[in-house]
Write the structure tokens for this entry.
Amino acid sequence: MTVEWRWQPYVELARLDQWLKNVAILPGVIVAVAFRPGLERAHAGRIALCILAACLLSSSNYVLNGILDTSTDRAHPVKRSRPLPAGRVRRGAAWSAWAALAAAGLPLAFAVNREVGWTAVVFWLMALVYNVPPLRTKDVPYADVIVESANNPLRLSLGWFTVIADRLPPISLLAAYWALGAFFLTVKRLAELRFLESRERPAAAYRRAFAHYGEEHLLAAAALHLVLCAFFTGVFVVRFKLELILILLPGALFLAYYLRLGLRPESPAQSPERVFRRPALAGYLVVCVLLFLILLHTDIPALYRWFNVEAASTRALWRLDP
């Protein structure tokens, strides 16, 4: 088969469109600044360097995924057009790209600080656990979601450690972030399963775990992850910032709508980055983020009296005490 020696297939192999997922680093930065106010100009440079390192390592992980999934991607009606299954990239060159991206990303992460560097190492190693036999948790039912969703708290930790390097992020926040990622990923699996079944294709030919999944299993798993997310979010809110309780309803409405999208025929939830490009949904998400930022820096003493909770010792920009 003739292989094109053009740069476009290699850029496609690195999946630069997936860099959008690294915006998940920013909440770690935002919460860290709330815990330790006084973001300096030097932090901005470290944050940019951290995001760039995460993007390069993400591409390295996606290249590895593409190499090891070449045969199964050929069984997918859409992914068979990717560079490796379509024969537009040499396998040896793909391995070189995987190593080069990692070799570029890891030193950048350590240039931020040691904590960011080692978190980036774990982020990169998780792709080996997920993709490489004999572990290859990608093929293990439920473990595929559990392991891949670990990238969420790792991204949050990257953002946190750029600002606060001498302590860990709150465990409740990490757990809530993991559960949120697991929910999104489970809905993605559900959308993929429904799409493949609608094309009358054996879903297990594309992903072995699908041999053990049914729609009812994935819906139950999505509900479980939502409950876990709500529980750990509640722990974080009560322990650190009760004002954030006011964002729970808008957040729940967002997640309910996302699940509804996941149940649609040929759902856009198969590629979450496509979902967040919808103007209405993106606008609603921006409103939620702004509300989150405002509440994070606002004191509402009445809430603490109503819920009989002691306020954490964090400094706020605004105080609402009618």
In short: Strands lie at 298-299, 318-319. The chain is about 65% helix and 0% strand. The first helix runs from residue 7 to 14.
